[in-house]
Amino acid sequence: MKKARFASTAVGLLLLLLVIALLSLRFGAVSVPLSDIVKELFGGEALVLKYRLPRLAIAVLVGINMAVSGAILQGITRNPLAAPDVVGVSAGGGFAAVIVLLLYPGSGALLPFAAFVGAVAAAAVVYAASYQRGGVRPLRLALTGVAVSTGFQAMITFLIVKYALSSSQALVWLKGSLYARSWQHVELLWPWTLAGCAIALLGSRHLNALQLDEQTVRGIGMKVQAARLALLATAVGLAASAVAIAGTIGFVGLVVPPLARRLVGSDSKRLLPVAALLGAALVSLADLLGRVAHPPLEIPAGILTALIGAPYFAYVLFVRISR
């Protein structure tokens, strides 16, 4: 029964993602008939192959990374509020990116690298600050992440206010825009997605075990802290690489895992693939809506994911509290 439910859900999400992908290739500032898309792909026309297809690929990869990262973080902390944007990863990457954009405006090529380093550094600070004798405790990790994230957000706001006249590009980046993304960005991102998802699936048994209380986990002979650290590093790598390429697209890692859990249950072997498909569909849809809602103005995908994700997240909280 569970396998059939997982299979039907996965097929349905794949079809949904395919529909969104076709619409994303077709619509934009200039509409392309479906009959011409295949011709342009094989003919090497610039509009689809050079601009829209890499942007779609980035949306899919970013959605996968953020959703799987959120599912891992929620699993290892046993906290449905844990996500890359809550535990400091997104804020750290955003702070480093804002420094490059505002203080070194001629160093745009360093932006992805700086954002990645900032995200990893923020995660390292959270881990070090939440470490106690005997290892990291899930609740302390989540609370420390919120504190560190708040601190980085305060510094970002300070820089934006100080350099207000030249902060428009930084503001767009902070909202998670996929504008002007190219195949070069795809090449930088896909290895992280592939490696991170593979490690997460291989460690799904450990992720399932970490959702139990620690005494039970230790009783079955598992090295709790080593497993938690390995999975945390995987989640950070997935989220940091996504932030480095696309900016701080929020709510994906927060909202998608609970929805995936409602669809296929909490077994990570099924949860992670469904979360990846949901994340890819959500970011792709947000980017599509951002391009077609008010052309030629583009609304950053991060704003749309927040508008889509916030009501559902409020609904999930309401249901959990009412129970």
Automatic annotation (TrEMBL):
Residues crossing the lipid bilayer are 52-73, 85-104, 110-129, 141-165, 189-208, 229-251, 301-321
This protein's membrane topology, according to the annotation, is: Multi-pass membrane protein
A Pfam match:
FecCD
* Subcellular location(s) of the protein: Cell membrane
Keyword list (alphabetical) reads: Cell membrane, Membrane, Transmembrane, Transmembrane helix, Transport
Q: Which domain of life is it from?
A: Bacteria
Which InterPro entries does the entry mention? ABC_BtuC-like (IPR037294), ABC_transptr_permease_BtuC (IPR000522)
Q: Which CDD domains match?
A: TM_ABC_iron-siderophores_like
Q: Which family does it belong to?
A: Belongs to the binding-protein-dependent transport system permease family. FecCD subfamily.
PANTHER family attached to this UniProt entry: FE(3+) DICITRATE TRANSPORT SYSTEM PERMEASE PROTEIN FECD-RELATED, FERRIC ENTEROBACTIN TRANSPORT SYSTEM PERMEASE PROTEIN
**Under which name does UniProt file this protein?**
FecCD family ABC transporter permease
**Can you name the source organism?**
Cohnella cellulosilytica
